[in-house]
Each structure stands twice: as C-alpha cells, then as structure tokens.
Design a protein that fits this description.
single chain, 123 residues, mainly alpha
Length: 123
C-alpha cells in the first residue's frame, strides 16, 4: 500500500495547482461513495490561489506574453487554455496582426478563465 501512496504523492506533486485541486476533489468524491469512509472524509472547499501577476514589459511578443501569463496563472489548465489562445496566436503569426491588441485579448482570456475557475463555472 505504501508504494501506491508514494506513487500517488509523486504524481500529485507533478501537477499544477488547478489540477491538484481537481484530483483532491475527485478523490474526495470517490471516498464519499465508500460507505465505510463516507462519514470520516472531510471535503474541504477548493482553495484556488491568487494569480501572481508579472508586470507586462513595454516591448513584448505574443509568445512572450503567453509565457508570462502562464507563469502568472499557474493554476489554469494549459489544455483548457489552448483552444482559447491558439487562434489568437495563429492569427498573429499568419496575418501579422497587432501584437499589443492580441496580448490585451490574451490577458482578458486568462483573467476570464481564472474568474470562471474561482466561481466554480469551468465552462
């Protein structure tokens, strides 16, 4: 059993904060389905950390902004953010759109996804 716990701990430590919270919620759900443990399992509310906003440099590329925003919002799932951000990045690369406007939109997407995570509305 210790090996399974150690493996779970190692996997847990590899996850970002948002995915760790999801895993904890799922584990609590599974535990609540087990009659012997359902009375002893305490489900703590999900604590979502505040973003650590990194100041936007005066001159920044779109890719640089994505890296900065990913560091500012480590709790957000990169997979969920991919569809929201890839079109903007592709348009910027293919059509040479204004990077300042694209970065403004990226910041808004990250902020909106964070607010949805905080409110429990992941959709």
């Amino acid at each position: 059993m210790a090996s399974v716990q150690q493996q779970l701990t190692e996997l847990f430590q590899q996850l970002g904060a948002g995915d760790q919270a999801t895993l904890l919620a799922f584990a609590a759900f599974l535990a609540s389905r087990t009659p012997a443990h359902s009375a002893t399992v305490k489900v703590e509310p999900e604590v979502i950390p505040e973003p650590e906003l990194i100041e936007r440099p005066a001159q920044e590329s779109v890719v640089g902004a994505l890296k900065r925003l990913s560091k500012s919002y480590p709790m957000l799932s990169k997979a969920e953010m991919l569809s929201a951000t890839s079109d903007l990045v592709a348009t910027n690369i293919m059509q040479g759109s204004d990077p300042v406007g694209v970065i403004d939109e990226l910041q808004e997407i990250f902020r909106r996804h964070y607010e949805q995570m905080k409110s429990g509305n992941r959709g």
